Here is the input.
Amino acid sequence: MKQIAIPVFPKFTALDAVGPYEVLQRLPDYEVVFVGHERGTVRTENGMLGICVDATFEEVTNPDILVVPGGIGSRALMHDERVLDWVRAVHETTTFTTSVCTGSLVLGCAGLLTGLTATTHWSVYDALASTGAIPVADRVVEHLERRIITAAGVSSGIDMALRLVEIIADETAAKAMQLMIEYDPQPPFDCGSTAKADDEVMARVLEYSAIRH
Here is the structure.
């Protein structure tokens, strides 16, 4: 079985990890492992949801795919040499190294995005730039020759995972997985980017973010 590693850590964003997982765990001949500092449960930003870490970083040395999720807890990883060394080491042999949301800050601090365009959550473009990357507002940014794909905030991880399936399998496989999870977005509002949000919505975003974090 080929291996897909998804590192999780205290205060990660649930959908950053679970969105790609829901797509990628359907790949034949692949298994997903949630990896972290130690085995056991880690919880999301609000503490309401826990994910079980199945293996430590040292136990997962050659994953075929790496998916680094984000969340407020990713800030600590930007200075965690144990994590950054592990990301650098596994990237040497991955088929693809990917990130969702602020997971790209971790890739950037590991030195994988220097001089490359990359994306992240819209609120942290400056932080991404500080790692040497060139932030862009695209939903998914690919550097296939470097084996790196970054996705923007939260829900974009599903888009990234479907594109990844197309690359490593084929378009039909990706479409089949899209259909299996019935990913056919029809949101009741058209407010999924800062370009579409008014001041009142932005103020509410800041209010809710302060409560959760």
